[in-house]
Hints:
This protein is of the alpha/beta class.
Amino acid sequence: MHGGPALGPVFERARYPDAHHVHWWHQPLAKPCAARPYLDLLEAALAEFRRVAAEAGGPLTVMASSFGAHLAVHLARQAPELVKDVVLLAPTFNPEDAALRLARRAFRVHTDHPHAGKLATALAMYEDDPGRPRFWDVFGALSLLPDVTELYFGPSAGPDAARSFAELIQQPGAFDGPTSVATSDDFSALDHTPVQSAFTGPVAVLFGAYDPMIDAEKDRAVWEAIFPQAAFFKVETGHFPLLELTLAECLTPA
């Protein structure tokens, strides 16, 4: 269950071309004028999960990255009998907070850039009047800064990781902006108070030591409320452990 929302699994498929045992699910696009695109996404994820589990003939490992963690929580809540175990990779419980943390980090890195002032103004206006319109102003200003994708990765990933990510995200189907906006806004309108999951099997949560989007200490308490049995691990990556570690390291962290 990849992140975004509205990111396609092109990054994972490029990183693991031989992982034929993994089902890299491509999230559907939001329907035009959909009333509740996030709820539609949850329904689509559950339907696909039930289909793949039926084909496999038994419970499955659910691996989710970033925003995809919310889809994993939904699957574990609605169909716990079909879940073998759950692996959450840099799960973002509050995507708006995560994006704002990234924007502040980008501003510190690019203070001298000609467009840095626009980002500073957008952030200040958000602080004075929080809400989705101001949030999207911040997001727009953030997009004016260069090399933002480099911030997603840890220092050991090397420049090729960020360059590959930037190239892949330009491919058709890699990311859909309108779907991302619609799904994000619908998500933000709901109550996301943590509720303990019905799933009681193994859960592993991996936080990247260099993740610019997540406050691991703060978010750990949230994910513990949902999965009290969870084991937590800090890995030497940024926001995409699956793109910096091996698949085996993500599934069985030390």
